[in-house]
Amino acid sequence: MAYVKNTLRIVLFLTFGTLFLYVLPQHDVARISGTEVIRMDFSSINRIFFAQADSANQELATRDIRLISTSKRKTFLLGFIPREAEGVMVYRNEDTGWIWPPYFKFDSSDLQAEAQANVSSPENEQWVVITHYGWRNRFFTIYPNAIGIRPVEGPDVRIIPWFNIFFFIFLGAAALFIRAMWRQFRERSIDPALSEAGEAWERVDARAEDARGRFSRWLGTWRSKPKR
Amino acid sequence: MGLLRLLIFGFIGLSVVYVAISVYSRSVRREKLEGEWAENHPGDSDSAARADFIEAGMTEYNAGIRPKLILLVYVVPAVLVIATLIMTN
Fold this sequence. Notes:
The complex is a heterodimer.
Chain A: H1 2-23, E1 26-41, E2 62-76, E3 81-93, H2 108-117, E4 127-133, E5 145-152, H3 162-222
Antiparallel strand pairs in A: 1-2, 1-4, 2-3, 4-5
Chain B: H1 2-40, H2 48-63, H3 66-69, H4 72-88
C-alpha cells in the first residue's frame, strides 16, 4: 500500500512539476539580434506546444509565427544562479488569447514592435529582460512564448520572481485548505455514516449468530443422543 | 468565442469552489455551536433545547456577513483576470 501511495505521489509531483515548469513565467536576460516571421506547418507532435492564431482570427492548419532571435545569458537552476556564459535563444511571439495558458496576451504585434525597437548591435549593446513561458526544443521545433520585454541598463540585473513566489504561497494555502475541508467532511459526514453502518452490521451479525445458534440447535436434535 | 468559453467554464469551476466552501464553513460553524453547547451543558447531547440553540446559531450565521464573503470566490478571480489583462497588454 505504501509502495502504491509513494508511486502515485511521485507521478503527481512529476506531472505538476512539469506543468509548472512549462506554464509559469520565467525571466531571461538577453540581447535581441533580430526578429523574423516564418510559416509553420504544425504536426500532431508540436501542435500542442503552440497557442492559437491571433485573437479574432481564423484557425487554420498553417500560419505565420513571429520569432524573436536573441543571445541570452545562461543560468543554472532556472535563473537562480547567474552565469557569464551566453547562448542563442529563439522565442516565439503568439497571442495566448482567453484560454490557455492564462496570460491573456493579445498584443503580439506590439511586442514584436518593442522587440524591434530594442535590437542590440555590437557597438551599441542593448540588454532586455524577456518574460516568457515554455521550452525550446530543437527536435520538436518548439519555442518559448515571449510575454513581455523590458529594456535594462546592463546584463547584471537582479530579478525577483514575484509572481511565482505568490503563486506557490497560494498553492500551499489552497492545499492546506482543501485538506482541512476534506478532514471536516470525513469527520462530520463519512465517519458517522461508517459507524452507523458498523453498528447496523453488528446487529445483522448478532442476528445471524442467533439464527445460526437456533439452526445448529435444531440440527442437534437429529444427532444421536448421548448413550446413557 | 474564447471569452464566452472562459466565462462559462470559469463560472462552473468557481461555482464548485463556492458550494464546497459554503458547505465547509457551515459545517465548521455547526461544530462550533455543538462544542459550545457541550461545554455549558455537560451530559446533554440530544435534547430539543440543544437543537433549538444550534438552529438559532445557524440562522444568525446565515444572516451575517460571512456567507456573503464567500461570494469573493467569484470576484477575486475576475479581478485577477482583469489585472493580468492590463499588465500583459
